[in-house]
Every structure is written in C-alpha cells, then in structure tokens.
Amino acid sequence: MDREQIYMKFGKPELHQLPVPDIVSLGAYADQLQREAEARGERLPPPIRLQIGEPNFRTPEHIRQAAIDSIASEVQTYGPASGWPWLRELLAEKIARVNGYTVGPENIAISMGGTGGILASLLATINPGDEVLISDPCWPIYLPQLQIAGAVPVTYPLDPANEWLPVIEQLEQRVTPRTRMLMINSPGNPTGAVFPRRVMAELLAFAQRHDLYLLSDECYDQIIFEGEHVSPASLLSRQEFEDGRFIGIYTFSKTYAMTGWRIGYVVAGTRLTKTIVDVLNANLTNISTPVQRAAAAALTGPQDCVVEMRESYRRRRDLVVEQLKEFGRYSYTPHGAFYTLINVSGRHGESRGGRQFALDLITASNVTVTPGQGFGSVSDEYVRISLAATEEELIMGVKAICQLADRPSSPISPPSPSP
C-alpha cells in the first residue's frame, strides 16, 4: 500500500481526526496496516506498542487463586454497595501504612476501578454548571466524566520547565464563584510527575482558602521512583478530614497489575462517603465477591511483586532517560507512574504536533505512541510513551521517535515490507 492508498483509506494524516482516546484509534490504525500488508503477502516489522497505559505483567498467582477459591467455596450473592467490611478494614490499614493518614471502614467505598470511583465522586458533589479545575495535561477520561456530571472543566497548566508541576498563581487566576472542585493527580498520567510535599501543601491550602472539594487521584501511589508520595489527607487534622472536602481515589489496577479486574476505592469523610455509596449503589449495586477476595489477597499476600514491578519500571525509566540524553531529546525525569512525555518538536522550532507525529511514526516505523494533544494543549508538541513494555521495545521505540523527530517535516512513506 503506497502513501496515497493509505490516505484514500484513512484520510490524510494532517486531517485525520482521532477521537478520544487516541490510544485506541492509533492501535487500530497500526493493526489495519498490519492486516493490509499480510493480505498482500507482505510482512511488516512487528509493531512496537508504547501507547498502552497498563502493566505488562500478569496478575500475581496468589491474587488469581483467591478469586478461584471464592468461586468454588462461597455463595455469590449481592454484597454491600460500599464493599465487604473485611476488605474495607484491610484498606484502612493500607491507607495508614502507605498514604499516611487514619480512616475507618466507614470512610471507604469500593468502586468499579479508580475510574468508577472518580465518576461516583463527581456525581455525589457536582451540580450542573459547577466549575472544576483540572490540569493541562491530564488523563483524558476526566473530561467526559465531567461532562456526564454537568460540570464545566477549567484547565490550569502544568509547567514543563519545572518537571510538570502546578503553579498556584495559575490556579488563583482561574478560580471563580462557580468553582466547586480542584482535581489533582500525583504521581501523574501522562507526565510521571510526583508532587513534592511543599506543592501538595500549597494545593491543599488553595482548596481550603476557596472552600473547594479536593479530589486527589492517587492511582499510582505505590509506583514511586524518587521522593515520596504525599497524600493531601496526610496534611489534614481528623476534623478537617471529616468536614468532607477531601476525596481520595485509589485502585488495585496499577500496583498489582489488576487493570481488567476493575476494582478501586474512594476515601472521604463519613457523611460524604455515604453519599458516594448511594451513587455507587444506584450505578452498579456492588463489586463481585471473587474480585474483592482477590483484592484482599493482594493486600495480605506477599508484596515482593509490587517491588519487582516498580523496580522494573524504574530500570526502564532509566534506560529511556539515558537514550533521550544520547539523542539530545531529554527534558525531564519522571519520578513515578510509568510514563514519560517526549518533546518531538523540530530542532529549529518547527512544529509537526504530537498527533501528526504519532501517525507519521506508525507509517515510518510501526511504533505506536500517544499524542500529547489528547492530554491537553500544553503537551501538544509531545508524545507519551508507556514504560510497560520490554527493554528491547523501548530501545527500538525511543530510537525511532528521536530519529523521526530530527527529520524535517515531510510526508512519510509507509514501512518497507520484510522479505
């Protein structure tokens, strides 16, 4: 398939409108090119998928076995909308141990992943027309969730020159009488930024000063490479926590490689938790018992799997940073999660844009990345790669990214088939 045939089938890349999330669309585009080549009897190089934001590890065996045992030995009935008490008690212990603040089971609600916890929290607190401050860049699913809740998103920029940290002055310029909530995410997706204690204290003080809900997305709380994870709730007194303005979002998906199990949890003051549980009850009734048993096994079983996965991501992070320095494309070091943003603008300031670059990269090298444009305007000149790939894939993928970024912007011919 030559370039014009690709354009006829998919549209010219510069006009190609990829819906959110680009992750799915770009993966489908790469798959289609692969199938077209195979139909012609050609073989393209194996695709290198660096756009997927989920662990490339299998869920540990003891966690899987706990679900099997539950299915075999327990009656699978409806359960409490907030989750079984035995799991919420274990989660209260985890919050104290990992996140540094004290709660009881009554402060915890089990949700359909962290995603379900965020949406339930928004529906429990936001009225149509309320404004919510969200970062630019941010995880793109925040936007449709806000739309479902009837909220008006107001973006505040993260600073790429300062390791993608927020600036309080930028928040102050955006707050209005209609502002209802501040959403933050540390460690961050797509940046990998970890907010220092000073920054977290400033964000908390800002939210308190303007009487805002503070929704803290802490889904990567145990994937930290340097520094510490600071939950805003750890800086609150017990009374301040119970006043009901803090909402913490957590998940088993990233820490324990349990993305497909769909289990997360929300932590908030007692009264607010009851309202969130009402939303969860209306939405999904309860999370299945085998999945909750698996989550309990994750908390009580050996934690060496968490350390091993985190250290693997750290090694891959170091490898990518080293490569970017060698190619002259280094701009910052992510300190948590398993992503990094790579600036792909031209050497002389020329712009291709992250989305155009991602399409060209598939055509040129069969490497998929996520365009920064899908996360916000500040990251338009970037692409996001995931560290949830093999070291070999990362080496080859980053090399292809840097080499393409160094080329003058021009139409890209499709990859040559292998003999």
TrEMBL record:
Residues 48-399 form the Aminotransferase class I/classII large domain. The keyword Transferase applies. GO terms for molecular function: pyridoxal phosphate binding; transaminase activity. The keyword Transferase applies. Pfam families: Aminotran_1_2. Keywords: Aminotransferase, Pyridoxal phosphate, Transferase. Its cofactor is pyridoxal 5'-phosphate. GO terms for biological process: amino acid metabolic process. Belongs to the class-I pyridoxal-phosphate-dependent aminotransferase family. This is Aminotransferase.
